[in-house]
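We now fix the convention by which a protein and its fold are recorded. The integers have meaning only within a learned vocabulary of local backbone shapes. The record below shows the convention in full.
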Amino acid sequence: MSMWSSILLLTSVALAEGPKFSVLAEEEPAPFEGVLFDPEATAILMSDKEFWQRECDLEIEFQLDKQGTKFHLDLQNAQIRYDALKEETDLLIEKKDLEIEALTETLKKQSPRNNWLWFAGGTATGVVVTVGIVNVATNWIEASK
């Protein structure tokens, strides 16, 4: 066991009852049971606490910055992916719109412009054919009698 491990173990045991601190002169009895540290060891223990607290704070700050950077990178990647998919969708919609427009133009060129004339001509033809069939049928019925 290293010296620092021993000191930390002893300080944690001493701190379990609540911290007590007393400055003693040489050959003076201690007012409580415990481990006596010289001024240098006491200074090291007191400064180590500050050192480890700062070390911990720095590590926390580092980890938070690291997570923040990762979050922003993931967000940027998601935005890039979104933009690419949106652009792809917009291009597909534009292509389909052009295709619909081209098919509409083709259909307009193939269908007659004067639909009412075609309707009137078809109706007239239908009437003439019907009258002709009725005449033929009437003549045939009279001839067969």
Remarks:
- The longest helix spans residues 39-110.
- The CA atoms of residues 135 and 141 lie 10 Å apart.
